[in-house]
Structure formats: C-alpha cells, structure tokens
Amino acid sequence: MTVVGAARSGIAAARLLAERGASVTLTEVRAEVPEARPLEALGVRLELGGHREATLTDADLVVLSPGVPPEQPEVAKARTGGVPVIGEIEMASRWLRGRVIAITGTKGKSTTTALTGSMLETAGFPTTVGGNIGSPLSAQVAASTPESLHVIEVSSFQLEQIDSFHPWISVMLNVSPDHLDRHPTIEAYETAKARIFENQETGDWAVLNADDATVLRLASTSRATPRLFSRRSHIDQGTSIEHGWIVDRRGDRADSLVPLDAIHLIGPHLVDDVMAAATVGVIAGAAPAAMTAAVDRFRGLEHAMELVAEIEGVRFVNDSKATNVESALRAIESFDRGLVTILGGHFKGGDLKRLREPLRRRAKAVLSIGEARPLIREALEGAVDVKEAGSLDEAVATAFELAKPSGVVLLAPACASFDMFRDYAERGRRFKEAVSRIGVR
Fold first, then answer.
1. Cis peptide before 358 (omega within 30 of 0)
2. Helix axis angle, 269-284 relative to 109-122, nearest 10°?
3. Tally of CA atoms within 13 A in the half-sphere of 199 that contains its CB
4. How far apart are CA 271 and CA 291, in angstroms?
5. Which CATH number fits domain 306-439: 3.40.190.10, 3.40.50.300, 3.90.190.20, 3.10.580.10?
6. What pTM, to 2 d.p., does this model score?
7. Digit-coded pLDDT (tens) for 422-440
8. Contact status, residue 436 vs residue 362, Cβ threshold 8 Å
C-alpha cells in the first residue's frame, strides 16, 4: 500500500497501516522527513524527493494526505489504472469502533470541534478530538471503543476523497468561496463540502446553520435528520437565542442550555460555533451544566480571534486562521471603529471587494503584505487607506502607530500563508513575537 504525503495525516496513516500488518511505502516530495527513523523501524519504506509513478500505479491501495491534490499526475494515473484512491480519514474511519461527529464549514471548524469535544468530555463521554486539527483520525484508531465519540474537523480536501465515511452527526457551519486555488470552481468546493452528508441515514443527524442559505441548499438532499441552529432569528425546532440564553427550542418548550455571559470569545460570529457545539451536545445527551462549564472555561484557540496584548491603549488580535475572505470579513465586523487590519499572503480566491464597506466604516487603514498586495490595493483603494509593508514585523509596527491611541490591530489576512510562512500557525506566532517586541521597546 502507498501513502502519498508525509505531513501529519500521512505519517499517521502509514503508521496505522504498518501496525496492522500492511506493507507500506510512504512517498513524499521533500528530500527529508524528520519522522523517518521511527517509521522505518515499523517497516515503512520511505520514498523521498518525489513520487515515482510505479509506486502508485503498482499499489493495491493509495491513501492521500489532505494536502495532496487528487489531480496530481501520478495519482490520476493510479486511479485510471484501477487502483483504489482514498483519503486518510476514509481509511481510518473503516477501523473505528466508536461513532463519528464530523464538523465542516468555511469558517469556525476548529473552534467548534475543540469546544464540542470539551463539552462532551465534561459531560462524561469518552471523547477524542482531531482530524484536520490536532490528532489525525488514524492516530485515534487504537483507542477507539464502541462507546467512543470521535469529534473531528473535516476539510473539503479530506471530504473529496471519501467513499464510505459515515458520521453519526455531521455539522455544517457555513459555506463561502475558499480554496479556489485548489478547487477549480466554487461549485466543486461546495460539492466536496456536501459529501459530509453522503453516507448518512435517517438515524443520523445533520446540524445546520439556518442563517446560511448555502448550507441549507447543500443539505437539502441529505437523509439525516436535520437539527437547525440560528443566532439571528427564532426557530420553532432547534437551537436559538432567547432572553440571554442559548436554548433548545422544541415547539412551545425552550430548555436553557448556555447563558451568553458564559461565552468569553471575541466576535459575535463565534456565538454560532458555540450554538453548533451545544446542538451536538443536546443530540448526544450532554447536560446543560456540562455545556456551560465547558463554554465558561473555553478561551478560544490560538490564532483564532486571539487577544494577544494591549499596549498603550491599543489591542492586538491574532486571527491568522482567517485564511479566506469570509473569515476576514467576520473578524473585521467584530469591531466598531479604530481598526487597523493586516491583510495579505497567498490569495486563494473569493471577492476582496466584500471587505470595502466594512473597512470603510471601521478602519483607519489596511496594511497589506505578501503576494496579494496588488490585489488588495486594487480591491480596497478608495474605501480605506492601503499601505504596503515588506514584512509582517514592519506591518505590525506601522499598524501600532496608526491605531493609537485606542484602536485595534487585527491580523486577519484573508489569504493563505505559504508565500511567507510555513503555515498560518507560524504566521500567527510571528505576529505575536512582533507585538511582544513593541511591548518591551
């Protein structure tokens, strides 16, 4: 069997297959893999520096890491030749003994996944958390029992390579244009997202954002039982907000779940994530007290609307995970005025002009970085003052001066990080390091 891609998921897949007795080759374009020695000790053959066509076309099974495009020539030839090609979550799910709670969306997946896991753990359920964040699903197989609840974040890259993947509860938070540097069209992206419902039956559940028309459209053919949540409007059946509480509404009855004052997250859009997690909690049978306790101690994830510091009256907020236009828009709309936003990086598609009006009303300026600088200027010029910076350090220092005396410096790039950094996490850490240097100067 061949595993393609030696990032987290690929390494976990190769390890799982080897531990289950398979003959495994792990192929990777990089010339070196830090985890090589432990893998070789398990009998995994490493093929580094590129993918040999025969390694894939002669395999009994090809397992793709999420970052490997399925249209890659060697992968396409293997598929054309009749070799089964699946993703890592598909392979791992076939060995799970517990039930899967799968969470997807353009924005908020990681926060919702982490909070859902915390709620269920607090309620006493044996729970594992991971997938596209944290521990890959392959790394959870050994600990899986019939009582386990596997809460996993799933991306469009992962979902486009499933076959029999079957969540007990699927969650779709929102859908807007993203990853158009990988998916050929927005329709292809939406189709990949919608596959989360593909193998569900009437005894399963689909947790859906009633405020997002695209989510409702994509779920319209699902066989799973729908359970809606809405922050913006009243719904007769599902999760809504009433009198300062997130409530479970069932006709004339409303059961209080979580008070809004227990939520310690920046941005109203993050209330959607709490509502989605609470809806899963209701389905799973978690007590409201456990949900509230989990929410009260949850301070969010690193790099997701993370309050870094306040220096001389200026707040610094790290939303490096805002790698698409929709995510950046929601971050910007979380503030009223005095905003200086850092945008830019490797643009993945979408309409940057959607940021014009929100920035016009709230922002003093925009600092643009990376490859997308010309696109940002073209999209925003005339609506807000756009200044270019040659580095993130320069952007942070300039933004600080512009945001004085009482503004907010927001890193919400609307772009991927790969032109300047290894990933969004490195970008977020570099932002925080730049802020810390301001604090000690």
1. no
2. 40
3. 12
4. 14
5. 3.90.190.20
6. 0.91
7. 999 999 999 999 999 997 6
8. no
